[in-house]
Design goal:
Blueprint: H1 16-49, H2 60-67, H3 71-80, E1 87-88, E2 94-95, H4 98-111, H5 117-120, H6 125-134, E3 141-145, H7 149-155, E4 164-169, H8 172-181, E5 186-194, H9 199-206, E6 214-221, H10 223-231, E7 235-238, H11 243-266, H12 280-286, H13 297-317, H14 323-354
Parallel strand pairs: 3-4, 3-5, 5-6, 6-7
Antiparallel strand pairs: 1-2
Helix pairs in contact: 4-6, 12-13, 13-14
Length: 361
């Protein structure tokens, strides 16, 4: 009887083809995983779509370039005026819109014409545009005296069209009578050689215009004479000159005070005066206090504020000779008060940082 031997199980060898199939299966698995990850990403994106996107805008640095207003001025306006509110990003960065920039440009233009920032910030865009359309800058009224300068200015009238020449003469008598009859913003005097005996004449002429608006055109003068004329705040031009130089000199003199006041008002120093934040007793205490670290900022700031407050009161009561002098003292008073308010803000920050407690009494 034959014995049947069981057949050995055949073992299949995995060749290159079979390995390739397994690789394909692996790739398919990877692709599936990638697909799952992509689906998860899409789900995440759909979730992000539900969140409001931050509106596009301009940084404070860009606004300073577009408007010409300093970053410090913008921050002070935002801190002191509730009507000047700027939106911020989630991380606290200021974000200005195109309308904000347009409003700031109009406000700066109106500040240069004498308006106060506190009056302008609450106004709507349409109101600011209307004010700008109505605000026409006045043409400087000029008186001219000399031998050859009146003729030169008459010849170059097209260049000097930005000026209104109300007096043009070579006669001192005509000049004096004209100055008594009409108002002038600038006075241009031409003299070939200036001697010491002529200084009295220039001083008398200075009384007819504001400081800085007397223009003297000359050929020769000694150094000490020039020094005295400059002390009178006269603008000196040495001949020969062209009418372009003269125009620039006159318009700069006519607008200097208005420009300065606009700059001061731009940082709220010529507007409303902030009341004192600290009492004199508190400042006296802070000027003698000792802190836990080697820092004497509280003492120095308190002493500085005490001095500023004293000068603020003095400048408010200072006597003035005329309206121009009164305007000057008013600017000194408001500027001092503005600096005092800024220093008080700094002292407040130091007090908070040091944990200093002040008696309210």
């Amino acid at each position: 009887m034959k014995k049947v031997r069981p057949k050995k199980a055949e073992s299949k060898k995995i060749g290159p083809k079979s390995a390739g199939n397994q690789g394909n299966q692996g790739n398919q698995g990877n692709q599936g995983n990638q697909g799952n990850q992509g689906n998860q990403g899409n789900q995440g994106n759909q979730g992000n779509q539900g969140k409001p996107a931050e509106a596009p805008g301009y940084s404070i640095g860009a606004v300073t370039r577009y408007t010409g207003l300093s970053a410090h001025t913008l921050r002070v306006w935002e801190r002191r005026y509730a009507d000047f509110s700027i939106s911020r990003t989630t991380n606290g960065r200021r974000l200005y819109t195109e309308e904000d920039i347009a409003r700031l440009k109009l406000i700066k233009k109106l500040l240069a014409t004498g308006h106060k920032v506190s009056e302008l910030l609450p106004l709507a865009m349409a109101q600011l545009e209307e004010m700008c359309s109505l605000s026409v800058k006045s043409v400087p009224r000029v008186a001219v005296w000399g031998d050859w300068l009146p003729g030169v200015m008459e010849r170059d009238g097209q260049v000097l069209s930005a000026l209104e020449i109300v007096i043009s003469t070579d006669s001192i008598a005509t000049l004096n009578s004209g100055l008594d009859a009409v108002r002038v913003d600038s006075l241009i005097l031409e003299m070939d050689t200036i001697e010491r005996k002529n200084l009295r004449f220039f001083r008398n002429m200075q009384n007819h215009v504001a400081p800085g608006r007397l223009v003297v055109v000359y050929h020769y003068a000694r150094r000490e004479i020039i020094t005295e004329l400059r002390a009178m705040r006269a603008q000196l031009l040495r001949a020969p000159i062209d009418t372009g130089q003269l125009l620039q000199c006159v318009t700069a003199g006519a607008g200097a005070r208005e420009k300065r006041r606009a700059e001061i008002d731009g940082i709220t120093l010529a507007g409303e005066v902030s009341p004192p934040r600290f009492k004199r007793k508190q400042l006296s205490y802070l000027s003698k206090i000792s802190t836990g670290i080697d820092c004497e900022c509280p003492q120095h700031l308190a002493s500085l504020i005490l001095s500023l407050s004293a000068f603020e009161r003095y400048s408010q009561q200072c006597e003035s000779r005329d309206s121009d002098d009164a305007a000057l003292h008013g600017d000194i008073y408001r500027t001092t008060a503005g600096v005092r308010a800024l220093m008080e803000d700094m002292l407040g920050r130091v007090i908070d940082a040091e944990g200093i407690e002040l008696d309210e009494g």
